[in-house]
Design a protein that fits this description.
This protein is of the alpha+beta class. The chain has a single domain, classed as Metallo-beta-lactamase, Chain A (4-Layer Sandwich). The protein is built from nine helices and 16 strands. The strands form three sheets. It has a seven-stranded mixed β-sheet with strand order 1-2-3-4-5-8-9. A seven-stranded mixed β-sheet has the order 10-11-12-13-14-15-16. Strands 6-7 form a two-stranded antiparallel sheet. It is globular.
Length: about 290
């Protein structure tokens, strides 16, 4: 299982917090049929993407990308000490798995220049902050945190109606610490990091494209959760806020990167989680390299 890749003049490290069973396939993917699963169960098992009880296996991870000028962390995973009563494996977690994985990759929290969040769901913002004497402070003390404006505004609006815990403990404290850059879709970091709008899972969901002058790697966030969605791009999980838009976005994304050299780095596919998009029948596959 490789945790380190190179593409062009960037190096990519996977920082895994959990790789574990998540939800039964039929529960997570309302459009999934018995026939579809039967047809794909064998390769899904081989890829460690599903277990014997048809429960999907997902990886929860961050990526660290080093460019010639910056060290960028993409999506900050689940976090510790966060009240997540609906997710027992995440609730009030106190383990050191994530920080050990960060150190094993050769990084400390002080090495990160930029934290970029594809969207502001609970398992993509968790390590934005850590608990320090009862208050939430930025985990990466020198980093600027990049939040898409459309996404940030959406969750600010939701939180005004009903409290959104991940927004309150993992996003707002960053803004209050004056570490946030709330950016539009034309945002870039030098000539190495750009935004690709990929709405549907959330209204302001984005992918990040890395590479000097070309798309060496793309970080797809929750555009797709399981390799089954590459075969059936129209298969949207129950978490997609706009399932129809998400399906359209997913197909467009897979067409865009199909049969190119771009390395697709997914948030949740089982290890190795990364590969190149290739055409497969009427759909696609993410072929490990």
């Amino acid at each position: 299982m490789s945790l380190r890749f190179s593409a062009g003049d960037i190096t990519i490290h996977r920082i895994i917090e959990q790789e574990t069973t998540f939800l039964p396939a039929f529960d997570m993917l309302p459009g999934l049929t018995e026939d579809m699963l039967a047809e794909n169960r064998a390769w899904m098992k081989q890829a460690n993407a599903i277990d014997d009880s048809d429960t999907l296996i997902l990886c929860f991870q961050s990526y660290i990308v080093t460019t010639p000028h910056h060290t960028i962390l993409i999506d900050s995973c689940i976090g510790n000490d966060k009240p997540r009563p609906n997710r027992p494996k995440w609730n009030m977690k106190t383990d050191d798995t994530y920080l050990r994985a960060l150190n094993a990759a050769g990084f400390s929290v002080g090495d990160i220049d930029v934290v970029m969040c594809t969207h502001l769901h609970v398992d993509h913002v968790g390590w934005n902050t850590r608990l320090d004497n009862g208050r939430w402070v930025p985990t990466f003390p020198k980093a600027r945190y990049v939040f898409g404006k459309h996404e940030f505004d959406y969750w600010a609006e939701q939180n005004a109606k009903t409290e959104v815990p991940p927004y309150l403990d993992s996003v707002l404290p960053i803004v209050e610490a004056d570490r946030a850059d709330i950016v539009r879709d034309d945002f870039a970091i030098g000539d190495h990091a750009r935004i690709l709008p990929t709405p549907g899972h959330t209204p302001g969901h984005v992918a990040f494209v890395l590479g000097r002058g070309k798309d060496d790697a793309v970080f797809s966030g929750d555009l797709m959760h399981t390799p089954l969605q590459t075969r059936y791009p129209d298969l949207s999980p129950k978490f997609d806020i706009d399932p129809k838009q998400a399906a359209t976005t997913r197909r467009r994304f897979l067409e865009r990167y199909c049969d190119t050299d771009t390395l697709c780095c997914t948030a949740h596919f089982p290890s190795p989680s990364t590969g190149k998009i290739r055409r497969k029948g009427n759909g696609f596959s993410c072929e490990a390299i």
